[in-house]
Amino acid sequence: MSATVSWTPAVAPARRRAERVGAVSAPGRLRLTRRGRVVIALAAFVLAVTGFVATGPAQAGSPSRGIEVTRHVVERGETLWGLAGTVASPREDLRDVVQEIERLNGLDGAGLRAGDVLLLPVERG
Questions:
Q1: What are the TM regions of this chain, as residue ranges (predicted)?
Q2: What does the alpha-carbon distance between residue 41 and residue 48 come to, in Å, rounded to a whole number?
Q3: Which of 73, 61, 123, 63 is nearest to 97 (CA)?
Q4: E strands of 1-125, at which residues?
Q5: pLDDT (tens digit, 0 to 9) for every residue of the chain, 125 residues total?
Q6: Taking the model in full, what pTM does it have?
């Protein structure tokens, strides 16, 4: 006599979806974790602070070292050397005064034009 056993397995629904190996997800929005957002915010903050520190308290056209200055409108025929002679003390080297005027005004040479406005150190002598 032969016996036959019939068995039907009970199938429970899967709790997680099966993932395909090697499947590429469609490009979508970038998802950052909380830690990722904190890292990005911290990096942006560090870059901003570095930018502010690198530029410093620079003020274009303002004298450094607390030098007292006056504004002068250049007239026809005036030169840096002539202007330096009017503000230099008798003991000062005129070359140093010319360099100071160039530094105060961001000049790179002795060429002046009538109508230019210059900052001159106050007369010291």
A1: 38-58
A2: 11
A3: 123
A4: 69-73, 117-121
A5: 567 777 777 777 767 766 666 555 566 778 889 999 999 999 999 999 888 887 766 555 555 556 788 898 999 988 888 988 888 888 889 899 888 888 888 888 757 888 888 888 886 65
A6: 0.46
Cα 104 to Cα 62: distance, rounded to the nearest angstrom: 7
Q: CATH number of the domain at 69-121, out of 3.40.720, 3.10.350, 2.40.50, 3.40.50?
A: 3.10.350
Structural domain boundaries in the chain: 69-121
pLDDT at 125: 53
Give the type of residue at 66.
G
Residue 47 amino acid letter:
L
Distance set, CA 21 to CA 13, 61, 80, 121, 124 (Å) = 21, 66, 79, 78, 84
Give the bridge partners for 118, in sequence order: 72
